[in-house]
Amino acid sequence: MTAPTHEATDGLITLPGTPLADAVMNLIRPVETPSVFNHSIRSYLFARLVAGRLGLAVGHDYQDDLLFAACAMHDLGMASDGPHSQRFEVEGADRAAAFLVDRGVPATDADQVWQAIALHTSPGIAERRGTLCVLVREGVALDFGGPLGADHVDAVTDEQADAVHAAYPRLDMIRSLTDAIVAGREKPEERTPVHQPRRIPP
């Protein structure tokens, strides 16, 4: 197996680097576990590869900033600082859309991101709601290696997968996601800090 060149690897794992993408990174990095953060970024990198396989062109068929924002924030509903008052897909979509609008992104574009995040766990629905929804769901599924991801598994070579995982390791992804979902389902009064003992009724 031939190792990819540094140039090819650098291009593969290069993130948008725009002010909006930087703002998204600054939002999610402090509130997601390293495992969930890496999964979110890998989902974008894989979604971009799937876009290439499908013959979709940046700037014509989809906007790279929106694809990055949707993939990077798709698990924002499980963030440690969230209210966790509704299902995580919707909570994350609401928070992501508000974040984008606050930064001057047109409401129609923010709504595309909202749909892509809200529907990323909805097979058979996301695929009918436009290119961004398709790419986000494909990128997430490909990182999980599930049935949908397997449809486009040839979009990623072994060398590309190795480079992506070297830059953004999987760590304990499944357990981290599961723990985040479970924590988000706890009632606010149940999320007591470990250093603060619970009150014992008399």
Determine the number of helices (DSSP H or I, runs of at least 4 residues): 10
Total strands: the figure is: 0
N- to C-terminal distance:
68 Å
Find the structural class using helix and strand composition: mainly alpha
What would you call the shape?
A: globular
Which architecture per CATH? Orthogonal Bundle
Radius of gyration: 18 Å
What name does the CATH topology carry?
A: Hypothetical protein af1432
Number of separate structural domains:
1
Structure description:
Residues about 1-5 and about 185-200 have low confidence and may be disordered. The longest helix has 20 residues, at about 35-55. With about 200 residues, this protein is mostly helical. The protein has a single domain, classed as Hypothetical protein af1432 (Orthogonal Bundle). The radius of gyration is 18 Å and the shape is globular. The protein has 10 helices and no strands.
What features would you highlight for this structure?
Hypothetical protein af1432; mainly alpha; globular; disordered N terminus; single chain
In short, what is this structure?
Helix content is 57%, strand content 0%.
List the helices and strands and how they pair.
Elements: H1 6-13, H2 19-28, H3 34-53, H4 64-72, H5 88-102, H6 107-118, H7 131-144, H8 147-151, H9 158-167, H10 173-185
Helix pairs in contact: 2-4, 3-4, 3-7, 4-6, 4-7, 5-6, 6-7
